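Exercise 7. Predict the joint structure of the components listed below.
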Amino acid sequence: MTTLTKTERGTVSVRNLSKSFQLNGERLDVLKKLNITLEGGKVLAIVGPSGCGKTTLLRVLAGLENPDSGDVTIDSKEVQGLSRERAVIFQEPRLLPWLSVLDNVSFGLEVQGTPKETARASAKKMLKLVRLSQFEQAWPKQLSGGMAQRVGIARALAVQPEILLLDEPLGALDAMSKISMQEELTRIWQEQNVTMILVTHDLEEAIYLADQVLVMSKLNGTSPRLLDIDLPRPRDRSHQDFVAIRQKLMTEFGLH
Amino acid sequence: MSTAIKNTVRLRWYKTGTLAAQNGLWRHRILNFLAVYGLLIVFFSSWQIASTQGWINSAVIPPLDRILSALWLGITSGALLDDIAISLQRAGIAFLASAGIGIPLGLIMGRIRPLERALDPILQLFRQTSALALYPIFILLLGLGEASKVFVIFWAALFPVLLATIGGVKEVDAKLLEMARTYGASPLTIFRRVVLPASIPSIFVGLRISATTALLLLIAAEMIGANKGMGFQVMNAQYNFQIPMMYAAIFLLAFWGILANLILVKLQRRLCRWSA
Ligand SMILES: Nc1ncnc2c1ncn2[C@@H]1O[C@H](COP(=O)(O)OP(=O)(O)O)[C@@H](O)[C@H]1O
Ligand SMILES: [Mg+2]
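Solution:
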């Protein structure tokens, strides 16, 4: 079991959450009476095969989609729609190409009404956090995929969310940058003390980053299961406990 | 002593080195220039030579020097100045009005789907109807004066910028809009900070076509029903067999087209440095 010492901000609970889509006149039940509780400041990874509803769940948690029934509460308050304590990081960095890197990072704050100078000062700090201070004045298209994604992360963190929602944020990166970004994410998470909910199709990434893993199976398959990852950080991918957990997940859920 | 010699040798080598490099650079520049403007130079030189040598009828296609001196005379004597002024005024007002109405209307129509859907059929109808075919109607409605001329130019120049703006707004990446929404941006903020900057490249494409269209319609309208203006001068010169003057007027109009395009391209580069 994970150590439950203090209750922090950013506790998420999902109760009886259901969501379906109409697809070609047929009803597609994507989420069925889902229950999750995630302590504030922890990391939840959502894994499962493509098309199983990971993105749908994340979008409902973000408030970008409304659930059919059930509810999402954050710090015991029910949330509906978008709100400021949650920030979303998508698979693509979604930077505004006409803004410099610095202006992209301060965009969220400016949009929320922070005066430009204050927003820029915070943005500079966040760029330092993601180690991109030299690129403040660069255009987004001058960045590599990993750098652009870090800018996106800096933009999300700049608004000081309690909960960071990430949809396969490293999915488009090559294997090498992926591993270094996983280390970066762990460091950023530790420094920022934020709750993270992260979708990934990479089992190893899930075990490396998360305190809990929600394993989803194909639509209409077995219901999702929540699993604790009780390894000390920094985690070692070759450690026997790490390997054992991965092995267990792979056999138990038929994941690859 | 020996070091001094070495130094001078090195210096000379260095100098000749840069000289060679500079020669290379100049050769590169000249070749580049020829690659771009070579055919144009060949075209005008052949024109000049063929006309002076009498290989072509110089009464119909006069040599360039006669055309340029006619142009120079027209401007310095003040004979053309009135025509230039009135033409620039007509095209300028019409173009500015088309941009001033087309851009805001396009931005609104691109954002509000029902409005766009309701207006699209009538826009397509108007657009496909030649503005010149409608000119007689505009004359009936607005008289033979300036208003009908400016209006027909405005009418034709409106559609390119309007449709390009609508297209630009509709093509704004929905993912960027969603991103802005997750930060709590209001519709107005999203419009100002995402939709507008994202549409600027398309708007400029439209503006450039509108500028070209405005000049085209200017000339047509002035040829049909005017007694002043560069379009009138082209017809009038031809009528009076002032052939060099006719070419001079044509060249001036071509120059305006190039200039308008150049200004718009420069302005676009300025506003869209991020995409360069
Ligand atoms: N807006 C939508 N309309 C209809 N069907 C959708 C929509 N979004 C997702 N789906 C369907 O829901 C299922 C789950 O999709 P998604 O959550 O994107 O899966 P994942 O992220 O796990 O790959 C898929 O079958 C997909 O086709
Ligand atoms: Mg997905």
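Discussion. The CA atoms of residues 190 and 206 of chain A lie 16 Å apart.
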